[in-house]
Structures are given as structure tokens and as C-alpha cells.
Amino acid sequence: MEGLLQGKVALITGAGSGVGRAACLLFSEHGAKVAAADINGADAEETAAMVRAAGGACIAIPCDVTDPAAVDAAVGAAAEAFGCLDIMYNNAGITISPVAGKGLRSLVECDPGEMKRVEDVNINGVVYGCQAAIRQFGKQGTGGAIVSTASVAGLMGYGGVLYGATKGAVVQLTRALAIEAADMGIRVNAVCPAGMLTHYAGMDPDSAHRERILEGMGKAHPLGKAIDPRDTAAAALFLCSDLASNITGVNLPVDGGLSAGRKTGG
Ligand SMILES: NC(=O)c1ccc[n+]([C@@H]2O[C@H](COP(=O)([O-])OP(=O)(O)OC[C@H]3O[C@@H](n4cnc5c(N)ncnc54)[C@H](O)[C@@H]3O)[C@@H](O)[C@H]2O)c1
């Protein structure tokens, strides 16, 4: 069976870890040639080596998504290496650092400098990725698919006020850009995961307590299972694939039913 992204070229940001790494591996498994971009070049290189070891084609690109010139250059490098760009996956994202031993930092406890950085990565990083991809699709005279990692925190109060505001911005950008870019044959969607055990927020996916942490995370969801980075990558894969050729402007929750509501009674 042909993969869902056979022959496509995808650029994935935040590719050195978590969801981005999972997406590089999954997109490649489905036939895509992948450019793995990350602010941490060594981590991106490690992802690229993993993809190549599994038989795929992947290059690593060091790139800070808050630098529009670097994002443009990353898109150019991906297109040059593989002939074109079909898919832009804006996945890089960060959150406000938690308070040690307490967890989420309340809005009034947030440092303005850190807030600006989170806004820059989570909002402008996605905006620059969309701009660069649209310019490239225009140059090619093709359409394309854009997907971003928003969060369930962009759909409901969850996971910190400032972080949620940045992800809400991505949710709204996805809808508005889908309308604007539809005439160009460009589809724009986002995935909205609930909590995953990745390096995000200073968590340790290799923690000795991994199973207990995952069990606790799962209890928060109607389906009872923690979200795996591969679950999010799979939703992104679908949205980028031709199976979703008539889907645009969608913010797809990957949250085990969390945002659907809550049980009544009992
Ligand atoms: N883990 C969660 O609980 C969770 C929940 C909902 C949404 N998300 C979102 O999922 C996405 C992926 O996060 P993750 O959980 O895989 O976290 P992660 O920390 O494991 O991976 C994020 C990657 O992004 C890279 N990165 C950070 N700043 C960057 C920048 N300026 N330019 C380029 N790369 C940068 C990091 O180096 C890292 O490799 C993020 O957008 C995050 O907000 C995560």
C-alpha cells in the first residue's frame, strides 16, 4: 500500500523532540521526504538520522521560528533539497515555565520577558511559517497543505492563561487563513492536543515515573488514555494528506474527548 504522503515534501518545525520528531518519523513512513527544523540543530540532526536509519529521506535544518528570515531560508533549503514543498507543519511551541513543586504559573506570576518569548514562538513562529510556505507555494504555482500544532488550551481554559491565549491565536489564524488561502489551493488546519509527556514544560519523557505520570494524565480524559505525541502526529498526517483534500479551517482536538464536554450526573 502506498503511504498517505507518497512523494510529498514536508517541512516540520520543532522537529528535534516530542510531536515534531514523531511527525518526521510518521510522515516519512508514509512516503514523505522530510526537512526537520529545530532551534536545537543537534536535536534536529538526531531526528534526521533516525528517519534515515528507518529508510527515509530527511535533512536537518537549524532554525529559530521567531526569525522570519531563518524560516524563509528553511523553506528554501527544504525545496532545494527535495525539489519543492508540499507541506508546512508549524509545530514548534513553548510554554511558560512552571513554578517548581507547584505546577502552572498563574498569569500574575508570569515574567513579561518570558511572556513575550512564548508569544513570539507560538504566534509569530506560526505566522512566519505560514508566510514562508505560501510564498513558496506561490513560486511553485502549486497549492499546498499547512498544519500547525495549536492545543486544546486554544479551545478551552486549560494549561495556563498566557499559553492558552497564544494557542487561541493559532486556532483563529487557522480559520482566517483557510478562508484567505482557499483560492490558492492551500489548505490550512491545526491539531489541538491535550497534555503529552514530552520535554515541553520541563517534563521528562524518560522519567522513572513515566507510567504513573501517563496514568494520571489519562484519567483527565473521557477515553482514559494519555495522549501520545504519535497521536498528534497522526492527526497532522491525516490533515496534510489527500484524504483531507476537502478539509480546511479545522482545529482538530487530539484530547481523548476532553474538550467535548463532561459527564453529567453520577
Ligand atoms: N506536550 C504537551 O503537553 C502539549 C500539549 C498541547 C500542545 N502542545 C504543543 O505541541 C507542540 C510540540 O511540543 P512538544 O510537546 O513536542 O514539546 P517538546 O518540548 O518536546 O518539543 C518542542 C520542540 O520545539 C523546539 N523549539 C522551541 N522553540 C523553538 C524555536 N523558537 N524555533 C524552532 N524550534 C523551537 C524545541 O527545541 C523542541 O525540539 C508545541 O507547539 C506545544 O505547544 C504540547
UniProtKB/TrEMBL annotation:
SUPFAM superfamilies: NAD(P)-binding Rossmann-fold domains. Transmembrane segments: none annotated. InterPro entries: NAD(P)-bd_dom_sf, Sc_DH/Rdtase_CS, SDR_fam. Keywords: Lipid metabolism, NAD, Oxidoreductase, Steroid metabolism. Coiled coil: none annotated. It comes from the Bacteria. Belongs to the short-chain dehydrogenases/reductases (SDR) family. This is SDR family oxidoreductase. It comes from Novosphingobium beihaiensis.
